[in-house]
Design goal:
The chain is mostly helical. The chain has one domain. It is about 50% helix and about 0% strand. The longest helix is centred in the N-terminal third of the chain and has 16 residues. About 30% of the residues are buried.
């Protein structure tokens, strides 16, 4: 087992609030925010050597998570996230700061856990904003 996987397994044993897919989803959302949404491209606080290191604020990451959740799970996004123990955007902050604590994510001096609080309401941001787009002809 890799060091990262081992650290995550240990974390899951210590903090049982969120299921493993929630942590993986946050990593995938970060990648999605960078590659698909173009977020974090001009950050001067991180190295330009590795695009995966581009910094996002808590609010930006929450928006990336919201869009990725809708892309992956559609109208069921809220239900899926809730099944993993994630009820609010503040929970994403708890997940991110757990990952920072075990060395799997990094933060800047200005990042705070509270940056994730009340970024969007799950009902409005995940269910009410969901729209079915018919294929282009």
């Amino acid at each position: 087992m890799s060091d990262a996987a081992s650290a995550l397994e240990k974390l899951l044993g210590e903090d049982k609030r969120f299921k493993k897919p929630a942590y993986i989803f946050v990593f995938d959302s970060l990648s999605y925010a960078h590659s698909e949404l173009g977020m974090g491209g001009d950050s001067s606080e991180t190295s330009s050597e590795d695009s995966a290191e581009r910094h996002l604020t808590g609010q930006q990451l929450c928006e990336g998570i919201r869009q990725y959740a809708l892309d992956q799970y559609g109208y069921m996004a809220k239900v899926v996230l809730n099944s993993w123990g994630v009820q609010t955007t503040g929970d994403f902050g708890e997940i991110v700061f757990n990952l920072i604590r075990i060395g799997l994510m990094r933060k800047t001096p200005s990042d705070r856990r509270e940056d994730f609080d009340d970024v969007f309401d799950f009902e409005d941001g995940l269910q009410q904003s969901f729209q079915i787009t018919p294929p282009a002809e």
